[in-house]
Amino acid sequence: SAWPGEPTRTVVGHWAGRMEEIMDGPGTNRNLAEALQTQGLDFREMLSEPYRPAFDAGRRMTQSNLKQYEAQVAEIRKDSQAAVQIRRQNEQEEVADRRQELAGQQQEIKRDAKQWKEWLDDQTKQAEDVLVELEKEYVSLEEQDKSIQRSMQLLNFEMQVIKQQIDIDEAGRTSINPSSPQRQLLAIRDQQMLRYQGQRNALVRQAEIVKRRAQEAINQREAAERRYEKETGTIVKKDEKLKKWSKRLERQQNRLDSAPQPLTPEVAIATRRMTILRSYVDIDWESEQKQILRSYELPHSHNGANLESPSDDAKSDQ
Predict the structure, then answer these.
(1) Predicted confidence band at 307 (pLDDT cuts at 50, 70, 90)?
(2) 318: how many CB neighbours lie within 10 A of its CB?
(3) Cα–chain-centroid distance for residue 60?
(4) Among candidates 50, 55, 54, which has minimal Cα distance to 4?
(5) C-beta contacts of 238-241 below 8 A and 24+ residues apart
(6) Which of 109, 119, 184, 290 has the fewest Cβ atoms surrounding its Cβ within 10 A?
(7) What does the alpha-carbon distance between residue 189 and residue 176 come to, in Å, rounded to a whole number?
(8) pTM beyond cutoff 0.70
(9) What contacts 112, CB < 8 A, 6 or more positions away?
(10) β-strands 305-306, 301-302 pairing
């Protein structure tokens, strides 16, 4: 065949330079690079002098393209990281607000528990004060009742003596003199005994009132204790739940503070695009395949179908 002219040498050299720069840079294949170094192969040295200017230009073009892609990736990464940072900051602020809210609720629970304890102490003191006064009143009533009983015993003894004297004075008489001094004195003592009994009855009724008031005070104190136990028991349960949530939010806060910046899909796609051949060399791969097949004088179709790709073979094996 004829020796390639200047345009052909330029295209070939330029394409070879672009490809070598891609393999050395963004599309580096470690195994291929090591094999070339082992063999001591240098594409540029293998080219004749007319190809080298275009070869160097091709490498510079790929380097320029790579810098553009790197700048795009950096810009996307910057925007992505800013968005991630804003989202993380919003999450951190939300967690911080929630933790502050829980802390406020815990303080409120402590205040409620303190207030309930103060309320119980006040209710208990009121009941105790009432019981102390009622006890004094009840003791006084008991002392009065004992005093009246002693007076009644003395009076009863005196009345027995009077009755004996009347029996002696009226012995042998056929009639009773109701106006006799002894009988008048006995009548007076009977009235006095009735007054004593009336006083005792009044004391008993008053004592029953005191006992009822005391029982009411005791019931009120017990009711206050039951309510305190119920309310503070609920408070304790609420406080336990709040402590659990507080610990969860603290762990979430620590995770947010220590989590590395994630690789967003946009950055991953841009980074991937920077390393693939298609990003640097715009080739119609189907046309190139047909041209290669024609160069070997092989048909590119079989029974009206395209030549099966390796992926098609893999599918058929499945």
Answers:
(1) very low
(2) 5
(3) 58
(4) 50
(5) 238/105, 238/109, 239/106, 239/109
(6) 184
(7) 19
(8) no
(9) 231, 235
(10) antiparallel
190-203 pLDDT, tens digit per residue, is 999 999 999 999 99
Instruction: Count other C-beta atoms under 10 Å from residue 33's C-beta.
Output: 12
Q: What is the pLDDT, as a whole number, of residue 155? A: 92
Structure tokens at 90: 């919003």
For the stretch 93-136, pLDDT in tens is: 787 777 777 777 777 777 788 888 888 889 888 988 988 998 89
Residue by residue, DSSP assigns 220-287 as: HHHHHHHHHHHHHHHHHHHHHHHHHHHHHHHHHHHHHHHPPPP--HHHHHHHHHHHSGGGT----HHH
Q: Tokens 């996307």 correspond to what residue?
A: 76
**Structure tokens of 95?**
């967690």
Inter-axis angle of helices 30-39 and 6-24, to 10 degrees? 120
Distance CA 282, CA 61 (A): 13
If you ran DSSP here, which 8-state letter would residue 51 be given? G
User: Which of 32, 33, 56 has the alpha carbon at shortest distance from 45?
Assistant: 56
* Contact between residue 112 and residue 298 where contact means Cβ atoms under 8 Å apart: no
